[in-house]
Amino acid sequence: MRRYLARRLLLLVPVLAGVSVIIFMVLHLSPGDPAEIMLGSQATKEDLARLRADLGLNEPLHAQYLRWIGHVARGDLGRSLWMKRPVLGEVLTRLQATLLLTATALVLSSAVGVALGVAAATRPNSMLDRLSAVASLFGASMPSFWLGIVLMVVFALWLGWLPASGMYAPHGGGDLRDLLSHLVLPAVTLAAASVTIVARLTRSAMLETLGQDYVRTARAKGVSDRAVVLRHGLSNALVPIVTVIGVQAGYLLGGAVLTETVFAWPGVGTLMVQGILARDFPLVQGCVLVVALSFVLVNLAVDLLYAWLDPRIRYE
User: Fold this and answer.
1) Three-state secondary-structure class, residue 77
2) What is the pTM of this model?
3) Which of 39, 73, 107 is the last residue before a domain boundary?
4) What pLDDT, in 10s, does the model give residues 270-307?
5) pLDDT below 70 — which residues of the chain?
6) Is 214 in contact with 198 (CB distance < 8 Å)?
7) Are 309 and 242 in contact (CB under 8 A)?
8) Domain that holds residue 107
9) Is residue 133 part of a domain?
10) By the 8 A CB rule, do 213 and 256 touch?
11) Rounded CA Rg of the chain
């Protein structure tokens, strides 16, 4: 297990290096000049040239990349061109809000998705199974930003039950109840598509497991349906279910960008969008690297969880 963990941690280096190259090239080759955005349209050519020299933007791309990745290797993601503050501190501060939103959506999608999948698998071809299939089709094809706007209009504008945006009320509040009320709509929006995916894969895994000989033997011995489904069915179908949940965790981290933007949730996604609009290269690069690292660590945790769920799995 230790050797496997060491190998996986070493693989983080080439993965993050590849991500850094891609995001660096995409940002620097896209249209727009950070110096022009910072100084405005009234700036002279001399002022622009001086600022580009100060920022190192007049150097060749490979020189800029090597200088930046050298700082990253030392734990320094640079300084934000827009906020004039260290990128690492800003990203870590916003990461707390993103992880809260992502974790809530992941728990919601996993609980609801597994419950729907198990219910559909125990009643195949029933009305519940067909409704679950139709709901999965709509949920998987529905854009998250559109669903977020619909939920905002219905529950915030028309009914007035929940706040429309932000993490806390601008005046007053600030307690746990205020946070939870602001968390409901973005978490449901982010979890909607994942619920359908987890539900359909849970159904497929449960149908395959419930058709095994040991399940039929348990039924023949008079074991209750509840014990057969949970102890013999669900427990042996957890590996593929956990796999898709791990994949969805990465999807939720990436999908948080749209959801946070729609609901003005102060997370890494919102910070990344602001950095893109301001052509803040260090800020966007730092956000992407932190999200990529989080995604890789989640996948590693899922792989390690396999050995705990299934004793037959061993890592050397």
Assistant:
1) coil
2) 0.88
3) 73
4) 999 888 888 888 899 999 999 888 888 888 888 888 77
5) 1, 41, 172-173, 310-316
6) no
7) yes
8) 91-309
9) yes
10) no
11) 24
Q: Minimal CA–CA distance to 34: which of 93, 79, 89, 73?
A: 79
| Contact indicator for 163, 171 with CB cutoff of 8 Å | no
Using CA atoms, how far apart are residues 171 and 109, in angstroms rounded to an integer?
32
Residue type at 11?
L
Q: Give the residue among 94, 98, 97, 74 at the shortest CA–CA distance from 85.
A: 94
Cα–Cα distance, 47 to 4 (Å, whole number): 54
Quote the mean pLDDT of the chain.
85
109 shares a domain with 35: no
313's CB contacts (< 8 A; 6+ apart) are: 239, 306, 307
Q: Name the phi and psi angles at 59, rounded to 5.
A: -80, 160
- Give the chain's length: 316
N-terminal to C-terminal alpha carbon distance within the chain: 6
User: What CA–CA distance (Å, rounded) separates 198 from 209?
Assistant: 16
**Closest by CA position to 243, among listed 107, 99, 110:** 110
Rounded CA separation 237/205 (Å): 6
Instruction: Report whether 155 contacts 185 (CB < 8 A).
Output: yes
Alpha carbon 311 to chain centroid, angstroms: 29
CA–CA separation, 54 and 72 (whole Å): 19
Residue 136 lies in a domain: yes
> Residue 122 is part of a domain; what is its CATH number?
1.10.3720.10
Please write the tens of the pLDDT for every residue from 16-63.
899 999 999 988 887 777 877 777 767 787 888 888 888 777 888 888
- Amino acid of residue 198: V
CB atoms within 10 A of CB 285: 26
Neighbours of 73 (CB within 10 A): 10
Q: Side chain identity at 261, as an amino acid letter?
A: T
- Torsion sign across C-alpha atoms 172, 175, 179, 181: negative
Please name the amino acid found at residue 88.
L
How far is it, in rounded angstroms, from Cα 93 to Cα 82? Answer: 16
